[in-house]
Amino acid sequence: MKRIHSGGEFEAKIGYCRAVVAGGFVHVAGTVGQGEDVVSQCRHALEVIGKALEEAGVGFADVVRVTYMLPDRAEFASCWPLLAEVFGENPPAATMIECGLIDPKYRIEIEVTALLPV
């Protein structure tokens, strides 16, 4: 098993790591991004996730599952073009949940699971 840390502020506070490589999968923790709006936060969260995937030896093409969590589902549609750009050629199974996030300033949290190459 391999643990990947990104140095995010909540990793040490809460006691988790950005990703865990185990059982043939890369499990990336729910990731929020920085920015003024949902699209900029989505873009930044994907950058953080991309770095964790890269460190694990995979990429977005290897993602088999993604969960999007937003406090306001009406904001999700503005992220679709960015998500289609990242996942379009290799779409994973996806779920969107409307829920409260750890801080009201966050507009989206993204969690992914990727398959390691055989």
Give the gist of this structure:
It is built from three helices and six strands. It has helices at 9-15, 38-56, 80-87, and strands spanning 2-4, 19-22, 25-32, 63-70, 93-98, 109-115.
Task: Report the CATH architecture.
Answer: 2-Layer Sandwich
Please provide the ordered H/E string of secondary-structure elements: EHEEHEHEE
Overall structural domain count: 1
Categorize the overall geometry. Answer: globular
How far apart are the termini? 16 Å
Q: How large a portion of the residues is in β-strands, by DSSP E?
A: 25-35%
How many strands in all?
A: 6
The CATH class assignment is: Alpha Beta
Order of strands, main sheet, comes to 1-2-3-6-4-5
> How much is the average pLDDT?
95
Radius of gyration from the alpha-carbon trace, in angstroms:
13 Å
Count helical runs.
Answer: 3
The CATH fourth-level homologous superfamily? RutC-like
**Largest sheet, strands/sense/barrel:** 6 strands, mixed
| Poorly predicted parts | none
Helix-and-strand structural type: alpha+beta
Report helical residue fraction: 25-40%
CATH topology: 60s Ribosomal Protein L30, Chain: A
InterPro entries: RutC-like_sf, YjgF/YER057c/UK114
Pfam families: Ribonuc_L-PSP
Protein name: Enamine deaminase RidA, house cleaning of reactive enamine intermediates, YjgF/YER057c/UK114 family
